[in-house]
Structure formats: C-alpha cells, structure tokens
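Section 5.1 Outputs to date
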Amino acid sequence: MLSPLVACLLSVLVLCRIALSQYSSDQCSWRGSGLTHEGHTRDVEQVYLRCAQGFLEWLYPTGAIIVNLRPNTVSPAASLLSVCIKPSKESSGTHIYLDRLGKLRLLLREEDQAEGKVQCFSIQDGALFIEAVPQRDISRKITAFQYELVNHRLGADPHSLSGACQPCTDAEVLLAVCTSDFVARGGILGVSQEEDQTSVKVSLSRLYRQKTQVFVSGGGRVKRWTGFVKMPSQCGVKPGDGEFLFIGTVRFGEAWLSCAPRYKDFLRVYQDALQQGTNPCHLDTD
C-alpha cells in the first residue's frame, strides 16, 4: 500500500497533469479528433488559440468544442480587434456558432462552409461554439478553417474583412508606412469587380516592403512588380493615370488596401514631417 504522503503527492501530480492538459492547445493552431469523444458525445472541449493567425482542424467531429480566440498580449486595444475565419472548401460535419455568455448565434451552417467565404466578427462577440452534426459515418467529415485577428481602422465595420473607404489622413498615412504589411509605389493597370469586392491590378516601380509575396517580379532589366490589391466594391475605384503609394494589409494571402494617396501628395506630407521631425519612420524617397 502507498503511504498517505506518497498518495498525496501522486494526487497532486495528477491534478497538475490535468491542469496542463487543459491548456495544451494554448497556441497558434489546433488539430483534434472527435474520436476522443466516442462514448461521451456530449462532452464540450475547450480550445485556446492565442496568436494573430493560425488554423483549426477537427477530424471526425462529434460532440462540440469551444474555441477561445485571443491575442497573446493583454492590451486595452485588444477589445477593438476583429476575428476573421476562412473555412476550407472541404470543411463539413459541423455548424459554427458565436457563444457569448451562453447565448448562441449561428455564424456558419455546415453547407455554408464549402463556399470558403471569410466571416468576421468582433472579438467582443464571444467564442466559437462548433457543434458536430449527427452523422452515421463521421469518417469523411473534417471541419477546418484559418483564422486571423484583424486590427481595423477607426470607423471600419468589424464584421467585414475590408476596411473603410474614406481617405486616410496625413497622420494615418505616415503611420501606415511604418506598420503596414506592404508599402509600394506604382500605378493602376485595371479594375475588376468580384462579387462584393473590387480587385485592382497594379504595376509597381518600387516595392518598399511586403509581408508575404503578394507582388511578384516580372524580371527584365528594369525591375517591376505586379499583383492585385482588394478593396470594398462601394469604394468606386477607377483606372487612372499617375503614381500612387499603395499601403495595406495581407489577409489570408491577399493584399487589402488601407491607403492609396497619390505619390506626389505623400511626398509633400512626408517631406513636411521630415523637416518638423515628426515622421514616425524613414522611407527612401530617392
């Protein structure tokens, strides 16, 4: 028999392991299997994801999981974030709800997920409650999506991936040059409508920064880059002459425009800030 002291230590160790297992998914991405719910399909597992982006993949879903999406740093600004999820076109087997204080609001039905459309909601709207649809054969079902935490401009719709259409102020442009996922100088080649968004084809003479390779080099002796930037269809952009400074964010592998001042206007604002010592960062304008 175990002594009372050893038994006590073992019980503490078990409790520690249980506590650690509850937070084992406190990371950027999560893969799990509903097979662990067999025999107790009413169980609800808590999943904690605390990164700016990642993915979830739930194989053979049974029962339900609650997905808590939060930034990895505590800040008052965190309450202003939006969460955007993009389901895989093969995603199936569940309905996805928003769970706020025990009240559920349907976000995506099982049949909606195959469209692969991005869905956004305020981080204040609650956690994701993902409930398995009863199936005779769960072996062909996988629920999967990518997620990103989005910091919108003031006044933008937290339920939309795209930003607001109003022009950026001078101060917003100067700050965006320092903090955006891409900054590039160039012109507009063409504009096309894609459902509820506009796709603008651009040709770039200068690529200052890009987070991921959304613009590709055309090669040749004169180096240029081409690509597409997205924006809401209601912005009413049209092809035009002249050079612009394209500034924006990369969401799910696509470039979304935040600001696009004419380059000559940006140059004036930047040089004024440079003289006054108020420019937040340096940009090579030669």
